[in-house]
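Let's do one together. I've listed all components of the complex below, 662 residues spread over two lines.
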Amino acid sequence: MASVSGKNSQKLDHPLDDLIRTDRIPHIWCSACGIGTVFASCLTAIKGSELDLNNFVMVSGIGCSGRAAGYVKLDSFHTTHGRAIPYATGIKLANKDLNVIVFSGDGDLFAIGGNHFIHAARRNIDMTVICVNNLNYGMTGGQVAATTPYMAKSTTTPSGNPEDPFNLPLMAYASGASYIARWTMLHTRELTETILEALLKKGFSFIEVLSPCPVNYGRRNKEKSFDTMKLYQENTIIKNNADPSELDIDFSRKVILGKFLDVDKPTFSERYEQIYRPEPQ
Amino acid sequence: MTAAIRTGEYFITGDVACAEGALAAGCQFFGGYPITPATEIAEHIAERIPDVGGTYIQMEDEIAAIASVLGASWAGVKSMTATSGPGFSLMMENIGLGICTETPCVIVNVQRGGPSTGLPTQGAQSDMMQARWGSHGDYEIIVLAPSSPQEIFYQTITAFNMSEKYRVPVIIMTDEIVGHMSEKVIIPEAKKIKTVSRVIPKGRKDHFKLFKPGPNGVAPMPAAGQGYNVHVTGLTHDEKGYPVMSVEAQAEMMTRLTGKIKKNLDDIIITESYRLDDADIALISYGVSSRTSMTAVDEARRMGIKAGLLRLITIWPFPDDIIRKLAKKVKGFVTVEINLGQIHREVERCAGDKARAVLVGHPGGTIIPPDSVIEKLKEAF
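Okay, and this is what the predicted structure of the assembly comes out as:
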């Protein structure tokens, strides 16, 4: 927080201050990083839901995005690397009144934590998973991730990435999620509306948000901060209900954004109650 | 008789008795993953926990199982998991998270022979040091070792009570032999079972410090959803729960984490003496091995050897003082355990130069017969 002093100064409040642990600011995110924008969208959506703030819980894993849990003024849990989803599963199953948000990065959720993601989606645990996808491991200095594009450079793929990245919405779809969407952090309004919709949605919701890491990914791939924003604006198209198999990220073609799935089906907890504690006939 | 406490006399296995003890203690959440020889605990809980309003979920692996248990604890319910060697290894990182974030929960390890896949269907006591030091970093932890189905019933309740009182994961180290043996188990009336629940904070929520210790060194613990806006992190943190990366913060947190155990040793350490008063030789044993040791003591006494047994019920924190005092009275110690000398090394440490200490151990797969203990007694002393 900037501190303003002087006789005629005005206190500069941020409209989201009531949802931020302002005593923990400044945050650790680099200049031109996109996580803060995604975080702000998430907080705006939480406020917009008009639900009881005491019932919101944010769970993160490890990494830059995983630090979100440390800045949000809600019950917040910064867990071990990759394990935010099973931790959140325990919270949700022990208190079904809580609205559980998992806010974490691509490395955390889809490499070390990939197994947990597919199983939580399959079980249709009622939670919202927001993945900030910056295509690499930012906090440790820019190593290759399960989302790094083919031939992209990282500190551990100095001549280019020999692997193909995951198509995350396709994985969510195949695993059984109820709600799937993708935006970039440039599409702030759409992203905020989508998070709000997902928070109110019953079942497993997944939102992938493309977000720049200029310091570790952009720098090694000749992509300046502004170049990434241009890609997000010019090389994307919005196609709701797109076929999940078309959703590979390749900025040399158009990257598809939008809401891809929104279906209603029973959650794990609903089925558990129905099967194990049926209402007396 | 209540849904949770099935008062009566039963002929059941140690695993089933453990599950019944958990329900009697108030367990409301079990994150499971099948593994021999601990599976029956999960199976019995899965069948019974709906009746007490709780939830069983079979997670995708043991890492997820322990993570879900920690999450459930922060949502305000008593929670547990049960596993064996390979699963125990997978749980280690999150057990550390539980210690660092002072999260009450119970973990049962029904030990089998190791390392690796080892002897899935045969007992051992070879994870005792892993229970103490398996997660990285320094810490104190509470570990109990039951020797019979009846005892596992009571110790599971004790484990929950201690975990709630001290805000620490408590590990029950049993083994395939106790887990799978069937014996008479008496489940008493509900009013005779003492259960303890975590202290809930009082006072202003906006000035609340999540890790500010109370009089016994343990901080009261709110649950998610109660308006405290808690922040819980595995990073080194201050009393507020906020990460602080400094030498001072690390020292302060570590003092708190270890102090709450070290200052309450009298309350935590449980041992049992058998024919020890006039003994020249003290057997030190625990779990199933303490039962064969008891037979060995009786046999030795018949042969004129003044043997006695110190049975360790609490393994960690280790009863240093008790063994040090004993070392001044006896000629020697014999540690009896189904491993190659894990607790034996602790006994040697406490015996120092006051008494000789020898081991009767083997690498796992079966009990230690009383004969092997007698042979060692004759040979060594």
